[in-house]
Structure formats: structure tokens, C-alpha cells
Amino acid sequence: MRPVRSAGPQLDKLIRRDQLEAARASLQQSLPINGLLGLASCLVAIHSGHGTLGGVWFSASTAVNLLRLGLCRAPCPGLATPTDGTSSGETAARSIDWHLQLACLAALLSGLVWAFLPALCDGYTSGQTLFYLTVTCGITAGAVTHGTSFARIPICFITPPLLSAAGCLLAAGGFDRICLAATVLLYLTALIRSTIATEKTFRETSRLKYEATVLAEARKAAHASASALAEEMHQQATHDGLTGLLNRTGFTQRAEARMAASEAICLMLLDLDGFKLVNDVYGHTMGDRVLIEVARRIRSALPAECDIARLGGDEFAVVFERSRVIENPVALAERLIWTVTEPFDSFDAGRLGMSVGICQWPTESLTHLLSCADEALYAAKHAGRNHFRLFDDGLRRRLEMRRECERGLSQALAEGALKVWFQPIFGRDGRSVTSLEALVRWHHPVHGWVSPPDLIAAAAMAGLTESLLRFILEQVCTMLCALRSRNLDDLSVAMNVSPREMAQIPVDDIILARLQTLGLPTAMLEIEITEETALDIDAVQGKLLALSRAGIRVALDDFGNGYSSLASLRQLRADRVKIDRSLVTGLTEAEDKRELVQAVLGLGRALDLEVVAEGIETADDLATLQAMGCPFMQGFHLGRPQPAEDILRSLEDLADRPRPIHLHGSRPSF
Ligand code: C2E
Ligand code: MG
Ligand code: MG
């Protein structure tokens, strides 16, 4: 069955094609009977002494029957070509109409031949009348029975012989014959009505058939498009639009399926080094192109058995079953790092690197596997660019420690187990304290001193970031009050605010509201942020503006450790720059460090920024920095972080005795 694409005229053409097909089939069935009845009529004619006439008549009848048979078998383009709305479809439809008309003409011709039947029986007056009348009735009834599809064909066929029969009977006269003629006419009318009615039924059946086909096709198409839509939605929900790799959802599904199938799973977390710089220097369009290229390289560097995902930003993940990948994960990680650091066409690839964290420990859940790989990635990042790290026993202990810290932090905060210590920052003379830096401290009952970055991370994991910030702010405010009450309000206190705190918490509102409540001058507070804060500049810019407008100073911490870009100095509204201790500690012996410190000092003078050198551990480094004209200094050599009471006592001593004092507090070993 051919497809139906539209109803209306198109449907009508299809019905007509069905009509022609059915008419041809039924005619081929009925023509042999027609021939046999013709032959019988001819034989009766010969027997009754009308042999010549009978032979002529039978020859004419056979010729017409052969013509009709030929027409039935003649090729019709409309039966071979779809009758759609195209021009070839129109031609095809016209050919069907043309063949139907020809069939009608041929039927009329045949009917006319049969109309001459009375000639064989002297106009229905001879003794063979009954035979010929019966034959005429039989053949016309048969034509109607067979010609159900297209009424005009049987009508053309039956009308001439029945009219001629009625005419002859009327002409012969007599009551019986006149009645018979009337009956023949009635019979003709009944046959015509019947054939018209059956054609209607045929057309209706054909229409229903096509409508059912249309409906079935529409349902099929709707089902196909619904399936395609569902497939597309699934693709979008599980894949990253930029790189075509799996996204976090898709990755979770695949990784969980792999974990269900096998116990030995390897998970790798990949993080680009220096991608922010690529974005900053070359723009986001280039950044996107780099991510696409990196994704391509990762895919081509790994066996097909690996599932690869972009988890977001410049973070990628790979998961595979160990049994399906022969290569060692370490070799894979090395290849990945190598392939990503290969030169790029459009920019200096030296700026881009990749760190990899690998976990192949059997774990009970994907979440745990991810946190183990994340721990390994964190350690790899810590080791510098282009490193990979396997999750091992050491990292497991560290992770457990972090977990326990997460669990215990809330209680520690509530019980006051957390402390804030203060480290002094000195002026150029290395004697006078100009400000203090607040540093959080926690002595865990099992794990001992917890390093502040671990503590900040644990707070984030435990959802306690804001509580921790409020606690530290409270301690800082207490210190500010203590300084004021001792007439030391020319000293300021710096409080560290991590990028996450800066981005996620209304730091500005919290700090300003607290200072206002306590009536503390904003000039006494400084916040220290790092360059990573600029990573989410949209989220932090407004807060930094509010703080600096209110008079709170901003110090850019750990300068020289990251990108150290002039853009971040401007974006982050820094008043002060703190040179990272990696550049300061041991600078007396290292010329390159001295040059870098000198450059930052020059930058400070040029941009009117205060410069603090942190990490001064020796008298030599102090002297070198003093000689270089460093205005502010901080370090264990000058003064270690100490509890609030100790530092206040030292400051009081300093105030009482106008002589240099070195503040040597206790030092937690992390
Ligand atoms: P930071 O802000 O750069 O703080 C200075 C860090 O260097 C402190 O480490 C301090 O103890 C240490 N330090 C100071 N002088 C010397 C020195 O001469 N030699 C050496 N080796 N180290 C020195 P700490 O307290 O472990 O803090 C580490 C980092 O944790 C801080 O770096 C800061 O980024 C973060 N942090 C500390 N306290 C807080 C806090 O309350 N909130 C937030 N958000 N971060 C904090
Ligand atoms: Mg700091
Ligand atoms: Mg620092």
C-alpha cells in the first residue's frame, strides 16, 4: 500500500486508482463468461438457421472482448506512480481517469454488440427468445455483480442490450410482451441503482482504508517524533553542549552503571592548569575553543572503553572498568597531561597544563569514589602544574581527617574549641606593630592542629562557611574593642576571607552590620582576599565595592603565588598587596626572588599600594627587605601568630616600654 500524505483531492485520486484496479480485475474475471455466453448464443443461432448472422455477431463480440482485455492489461502510469501533489503525480492521476473512460467506452461498445442479439432471434419473436432473453438478463446481472467499483462501466454495458430487448418486445406488441418490456426497463433501473449504490460503498470502503492508513502513518510519525524528541532531551540532559562529552548527570549514570557491573573501577578527575588565564587573555570565545580542543584530545588519548565527561568549567572526569582497559592508569594520566600540553594553533600552549587525580580504590559509592579522586586531584594541584596523583593510604588518612573535621566542626564551634590567633605586621623599622592578621586555629582532639585551609574546606563541606565567618568576625571585633580600650586604635586588624566565603555569603552586610552594632570604626578592619576571588568577579564585585566605600581596606594576599595580574589588583580594589612568602623566605640568597620582590615594591610605589612582605624567617631576610625599602613586614622572625591575650599583653608591653619587641608566640605544627 502506498503512503497517503494528505486527504481531500489527493484521497479522491487514490480512490479512483483503487476503482480502476478493481474494475480491471473484475473485468478479467467476467470476460471469459461473456465469451462463453457469446459462444452459446452463436451456437443457438447456428442451430436455429441464423448461422451467418450468429458468426458475424460472435466475431464482433470476441473482437470487442479482446479489446477490453487489451485495455485491462494496457500499462497505466497512474497505477505505477504515486498520485501525490507533484506534477508527475498529477499526470498519473489523469492517466487513471483516462483509462476509466476508455473502459467505459469499451463497455459501451460491448453493450452495443449485445444489443444486436435480438437479430439472432427475429427481435425476440422466434422460439429461441427465452434463451436469448435469459442470456441477456444473465449477462447484465453478471456485469453489475462484477462491476461494483465503477458504476459507469456496467451501466454502459447493460443499457444498450436491455433497451434493445425492451424496444424489440414493445415492437413485437401484445400484452405479455409489453409487460415483459416494462419489466426489462424496471430491471434496468434496478440494476443501475444497484451498481451506483455498490460503487458508493466501494468508494467509502476505499476511503476508510486510506484514512486508516493516514491515521496509522500519523501515529507512526508522531511516535517517531516523540521518540526523537525524547532521545534529544535525553542527549541534552546527559551531555555537555559545548564539548559533546557527558555532563555531570550523564557521567553519574554511566559511572554508577559501571560500578554496578564491576568492582574494579578507576576514576580520574582532570583539571586544567592556567585555564583562567587563557580566558582572561584571549577571551571566552577562545576559552570555549580551547575546551572543545582539550575534550577532543582527551577523547583521542583514551581507549574507547572509557567514559569521559566535562563536569563543568575546566574540570573533566574519566571512568572505566579496570578489566576492560589494559593500560595502567598512571600511563593514561601521563599521556593525558602530555596531550593537553601539546602546542595549540591559536595560542601559547605553555600557559595550559593539566592536573590529574586518580582513584582506583574499591569504594561503596560513587560519591565516595569522587571525593577520593578529588582528594588526589587536590594533592596533584598542590604539587604544581602537570602532576598526577594516585589516591593512596596517606591521602585516605587525610580525607578521613577532613571528614572527621567536617563532622566535629559544628560542635567545636558551639563549644568554643576554635580560636583566632593574631600575627603582628610591622612597619619598615621591623619594630613598630602597624596591624595584626587574624588567623583561625583549631586543635582537634584526635588529629591535633588542623591547618586553616583544611578547616575552611571542612566548613564548606559541612555547610558551616557562614557560621565560621561570623565566629572569626566576632573574635576580630573583640580584638578591635580590646585595642580601642587600650588606646591602640591606630592599629588595624586584617581578617582573611576565602574566595568561597566572598562569593557565597553576604560578607559585606555581615561585616558592616557587626561593626555598626559595636560602634567600631571601619578603618580598623582590613580584609585579605586572594586572586582566586576574581574567578567569580561578578559575585564579589558589588560586595568589595560596598566594603571599600564603607572604609574597609582590601589586601591582596599571596601575591606572586598565582597569576599576579595587574587586572586582579584593579578588579579587586586592592589597597594593599601582600607578597607571598614563597618569594620572601630566603630571598637574601636568591637573586630571582629579590628581583621579583623589587618589582612588586616598584609596582606598589607606582600604583600607590601598600606592600607587605610575608614569611620573613631570618634576620638576613629582614635586613634585605629593609634595604630594599619594603614598607611593611610579617613573619615568624618578627612575630608568630599568638592567642589574643598574649598578643594584647605584648602590645601593652610594647606601649609601656618604647623599645623594639619581638613577639614570639607558640607555633602550631600542622
Ligand atoms: P595567609 O593569609 O597568607 O596567612 C599567613 C600564613 O603564613 C599563616 O599560616 C601564618 O601562620 C603563616 N606565616 C606567617 N609568617 C610565616 C613565616 O615566617 N614562615 C612561615 N612558614 N609561615 C608564616 P596559617 O595560619 O596556617 O594560614 C594559612 C592560610 O590559611 C592563610 O594564609 C589564609 O589564607 C588561610 N587562613 C588562615 N586563617 C584564616 C581565616 O580565619 N579565614 C580564612 N578564610 N582563611 C584563613
Ligand atoms: Mg592572609
Ligand atoms: Mg598570605
UniProtKB/TrEMBL annotation:
Keyword Repeat listed: no
Signal peptide location: none
Keywords per UniProt: Membrane, Transmembrane, Transmembrane helix
Domain GGDEF: 263-393
Residues of the EAL domain: 402-655
Name the UniProt record assigns to this protein: EAL domain-containing protein
PANTHER family: CYCLIC DI-GMP PHOSPHODIESTERASE PDEF, SIGNALING PROTEIN YKOW
Residue spans crossing the bilayer: 98-117, 129-150, 162-188
GO molecular function terms listed in the Swiss-Prot or TrEMBL record: cyclic-guanylate-specific phosphodiesterase activity
SMART domains: EAL (SM00052), GGDEF (SM00267)
Entry annotated with the keyword Zinc-finger: no
